[in-house]
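[Structure tokenization] protein backbone as discrete codes

[Encoding] learned vocabulary of local backbone shapes

[Begin record] amino acids and matching fold tokens:

___
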Amino acid sequence: MTDTHAARALLGEFAARTGLEPPARTPNRYLWTDAFAVCTLLGLGDEAARSLALRLIDLVHHTLGRHRGDDGRTGWLSDLSDEEGALHPTAGGLRIGKPLAERRPGERFDDRLEWDRDGQYFHYLTKWMHALCRASAVTGDPVHAARAAELAKAVHPAFVPAPGRMHWKVSIDLSRPLVASMGQHDPLDGLVTYAEVDAASGADLSVESADLAAMLSGVRLATDDPLGTGGLLFDAVRIAALTAGGRASLGSLLVPVLEAALAGTAAFARSGTLRRPAGDRLAFRELGLAVGLHGLERIRSEFAASPAMFAECDRLHGQLVAFEAYGTLAGVIEAFWLEPRNRATSTWNDHREINEVTLAASLAPAGFLAV
């Protein structure tokens, strides 16, 4: 369903609680959630929402582009002066926004604590690159896309230190890995995002893209995680739009990505999750899938408009037909989480900001899914 009224209400609650509107002296910023919020606000189409999105971009840069208050270091992550850093706020990357300080060099790794420790995540940074590209497209101001390109250039060497190697999480100053293993979808997500950034900014990210493309051959894309499946569908939307726009090098990815997404969607539908009570479910993971499912209409539209641009047309058509069996799934997920009693659980409130913003993005998906 599309419900911009409910989306606005959810984003308004999020803005008030995190110190965006009204402004707070110590705003609570989290890069992943803020990226979804920026895109959704931009997609609402009115001046007030657009102004709030641009204020959020600036607040993220001045909060997550600078060192934490409890860190001995100060200023921009890039070490630029205050003036230069304000002009190039993404030149040193952006912090995640986790509640705990990052693990110090030599400190023992604790898997449980690491989830709450700060640093930089590649898959959060790519979402922010997408948000900046959307800001350029909506406002006509190229500076946002230029900052997305600057971000990609700045963080890529830290996350991809050598051919065939990619880190999932690195330190705030980009000097060392915090989690050295590779995220399952990071090479794909990075490759598609770099193509989007290149198209939006005119930057040359061919070397960086080649690094990621070389890793894809050995990556299994299918996942039982609904949020991961939603991410695959988001990548598929961008692949379709960029392919139709002339980025033919991405065209061969659409069928395998949709194949993996179809398997993941089917696995979620079979899992019995939808029959469980709210206290046993994680809203943002399900809603990530719902957002992605809304993108199938865009893929169908791009394919129908220019089928000759796409590889393996028969298989692609068959996949799009197969997805019709899940045509009501996004609406079922949204309806469940719109019910007030299902948002009165600890599992909702423990992740309230990301749950609210992802529900808003699913109810008004045009902003996040635009390319």
